[in-house]
Design brief:
Two copies of one chain form a homodimer. Chain A has 216 residues and is an all-alpha fold. Chain A contains ten helices and no strands. The interface between A and B is medium-sized, with 27 and 27 residues.
Chain lengths: 216, 216
């Protein structure tokens, strides 16, 4: 690979690794808002899975001669800002964030994975499986809407906020990390390819909102 | 087994399961105090291991026809009180709690494990392995003492507080759960056996303090 592409792979693994470590941290925190021990255990399980993914990404960075800490460092601020601007205040907000927010992030990284070498791409696909999160979120949200239909409107607004903040922080990261921006622009066939990528991500987001019974 | 012994096993698995779930939760929380991403990853890894242990205990409860939620419920208050009274305010307090506090808890449960059926006992031993925690704690604490010797006195006090609160909450649990109290008293050969058990636990606690370079 050319040095630029190598840098992009290190950046990609770094941002994903910190994404997983911070997802672990936030899901573990959010689990405390669960209305039952069973719900708490279920969200804690998701956190533990994310930690396993972090470990795989950190190991891969070590394999290619990179320190995970250094590879993650450039992305800490953007991801912490995202999480602090989208800290859930209710259990249902946690559930929607775990499904809609993380789902959109995963779609974005899967798009980027198509642009890098096969080994990196395979690892990214492996760590982005959502492990039954859809069933969990749909069950929790639909049960809440059945009891209190007004919940749907509030959660739809929440989902829009998640999407807005995710887009905003992604733009900050791309503006700061030229290697990732170049990977994305060149990999998708020039600037013209980017709108098609955004459309694909938006379509999959809309499918998740439909599954939850929310307007997107 | 007699019904009393069966109740004791359910209680034992229940208190251990909630102990692991709350340890997961607290270690994940404490990891945020780490001074480096590497330290944060290390403590997050311990949290993920605890979650795996929780899962094993919850599965065992299901196998013997018990709902994990119901088995854990009687122990939530005591464990939450312990954690709220021993919330670390520095990284080194987190490290000492993860090694000294959890180590003493593990010693206690291993003692109790000797008093129940072989399958339960084997599972308890399996979920109480401390997975390199000693090396981690000794390294962090000794490095801190080398730089700032006064740290040792403060951490020794902290360890005494952990032990005091652990004993206090254990007494509350035993006072509330007759099955566990009977198991302990009868299993150790009557009330006379309890002091010997306490001595064994205290000795192992003193060994950990020596390893850390702290006065017990």
């Amino acid at each position: 690979m050319a040095p630029a592409a190598e840098n992009a792979v290190v950046d990609l693994l770094g941002v994903l690794a910190y994404g997983e470590l911070s997802a672990f941290d936030r899901l573990a925190d959010d689990a405390r808002l669960a209305p039952s021990l069973a719900g708490r255990a279920e969200m804690s399980a998701m956190a533990a899975v994310e930690f396993g993914h972090f470990r795989r990404l950190a190991d891969r960075l070590l394999e290619i001669g990179q320190q995970p800490d250094e590879a993650m460092a450039p992305f800490v601020a953007a991801l912490e800002t995202f999480h602090s601007l989208t800290a859930p205040s209710t259990w249902l907000e946690c559930v929607v964030k775990a499904y809609v927010g993380d789902g959109m992030g995963a779609d974005f990284y899967r798009e980027v994975a198509a642009l890098v070498d096969d080994a990196t791409s395979a690892l990214i696909h492996e760590v982005l499986t959502d492990e039954g999160r859809a069933e969990f979120a749909v069950r929790e949200v639909q049960a809440a809407i059945a009891v209190q239909p007004a919940v749907a409107g509030r959660l739809a607004l929440w989902a829009r906020r998640l999407v807005g903040e995710a887009i905003s922080q992604t733009q900050h990261v791309l503006a700061d990390r030229e290697s990732l921006m170049m990977l994305l622009v060149e990999g998708t066939g020039g600037l013209a390819g980017v709108p098609a990528l955004i459309t694909r991500i938006t379509d999959r987001h809309a499918e998740r909102m439909v599954a939850l019974g929310l307007d997107s």
